[in-house]
Amino acid sequence: MSIPEKYKFIIQLGKALHNYGIPSYRIQAYLSKVSKNMGVRGTFMDSPTWINYVFYENGDEQTYNYIESVAPGTLNLGAFSRIVETTDKLIANEIDITEIDSRLKTIHEKTVKVNHLALTIAYALSAGMFNLMIGSNWISVFFALLLGAFVYLLTYLSTKYVYLNSVLESIASFLATIIAGLLSLVFPDLNVGLTIISAIIIFVPGLAITTALEEITSKSLVSGTAKLFDALISLFKQFFGVILGLTSLKFLINFEIFNHYSNIPNWIIFLAIPLFSISLLPIFQVRKKDMLFGVLTGAVGFFLTYSFSVAGILLSTFVGSIGVVIFSHLFSKITKTPKVVYVTQGIIMLVPGSKTLFGLSNVFLNTTIVNVGNIGEQVAYILMGILGGLLFSGVFKPED
Question: Which parts of the sequence belong to the Threonine/serine exporter-like N-terminal domain (predicted)?
Answer without folding.
Answer: 9-247
